[in-house]
Each structure stands twice: as C-alpha cells, then as structure tokens.
Amino acid sequence: MAAVDVIVDNLVTLWRIPAVRQNFHWIFLLISVVGSILKELALVPQTYFSSSRNALNVYFVKVSWGWTLLLLTPFLLLSNSSFSRSASFLGRRLLSLAVATTIWYVCTETFFYIEDVTGSCFETDGVDVINKEFTSKASCRRAGFQWNGYDISGHSFILAYSALFIVEETAPMAFLKTASLSALPRMVLNLLYVALNLIVIVWVWMFACTSVYFHDPSHKLLGTICGVLGWYLTYRVWYLKPLSPGLPPQRHPKGLKQHT
Predict the structure, then answer these.
(1) Is 25 among the catalytic positions?
(2) Cα angle vertex 24, ends 23, 28, to 5°?
(3) 72-105: per-residue pLDDT in tens?
(4) Which residue in 25, 155, 219, 252 is the catalytic one?
(5) 112-160 pLDDT, tens per residue?
(6) Catalytic annotation on 219?
C-alpha cells in the first residue's frame, strides 16, 4: 500500500496550501460564469458529457449526496475517533452530517417547489400549447408532456456544496499522518481519503459539464450561489460559534487531547 501512502501524502500537501483551501469556493463561481458564457455563445462542441445519460451523471451525480455520505460517514467516524473517543465529540461531528443533509434536502425541495409554482405544462417542446390540466412537473411529465418553469440548477448546487463539504470534513487528515493508528484502520482511512478526493474531482468535472451544456445562466448561477452560501454560513459563520457542531479538529490528536 506504499503507493496509496504516497498519493495520500501528495493530496494532504495540496490541501494544506492556504491559497488552495481559501479560494476553492471561487472555482465554482468562476466555472459557472465562464461556462454559461461559453454555452450561450455555443463555443463548446457536443461530447459524451453533453448528454444527461452519460454514466457519471446517471450513476454518480443523480445520487451524489448518497455517494458523499457513503464515503464521508465512515471516514468521519474513523478519523475523528483518532482525536477523541468521547461520545459528545463524535456526536458533534456526526451532527455536521445531519446539518449538511438538512441543507441539501431543504434547498432541493425549495428548487422543486419554485419550478412547480412558476411553470406550466406544454404539449410540445415549442412551448406554444399549454395544457392546463396538469399543475405540477411530476404529473405533466408522467403524461408525456414538457414542463417549463424556473429550474434552479440542482446539479450546480449539490456538486458545489458536496465538494466544499468534503474538503472541510477531510481536513483533519493533515494531522493524522503521524497518529498512532494500527495497519488496518490506517489503510481503510487512506483508501477512504483517496476515494473522497476522487469524488471531489468527479464533482468539479461534472459541475463544469453542467455549466457548459445545461440550464440557463441564471439557473446555474443561483444554484451555485446557494451551494456556496450553504457551506459559508456553516463552516465560516455558524460553526465558529459555541452552540454548533463546530469545525473539524484543527490540531494533532496529541495536542487536541491535551486541551480536552
């Protein structure tokens, strides 16, 4: 597993660069704006990823929050137990997962609601014949018609938010390189860390594809802003307060235990 150790070391080194972590969220806003301009000017040729049926979209993006929780939950438990085995400490870290899931659910449901109340059912793609029998996107689509409403990009939201969330919660890895972990837990932790970084790469790539191939500019920008705001209001505002899940551990396990 020496190769995995090298990969982990390189990834940890990358994320410890202040400019990378501090400016990561700006990447999504930049991609959203530039990608929207490229789409409106039709400067990007059609590719495999211009179809919503591409494998990454179907098997990863469509269930992106599931992938995020599937990989991040065991990583969070294993990594944070190296800092403290206190039930209250681990409970607070798990609470960050619950908060993030709540943000995901509330935002996506709000997007669906906005699309429903602002839309109409059309019998053709030409949006020239309205079918007033159907008053929701679900019923309209089931009938084989087209729904046209204000469709805030859920992809832009969830991909930006998930990537930012993962980067925040995997930050303790920088302080676990010399932690006293046995061989098996260390191997599992390293594999989870590499997998989470791969997921972040996939999320950023698919975010870029969404920006250049799908949605109207305002739909994508608003979805992106919601994702960035969800991260900012938690990790840069609320989690700095005493009554919150708190930030992930920021010190070496030994240093942390000395202060607990």
Answers:
(1) no
(2) 115
(3) 999 998 888 777 777 888 888 899 999 999 999 9
(4) 155
(5) 999 999 988 888 766 666 777 888 888 888 888 888 889 999 999 999 9
(6) no
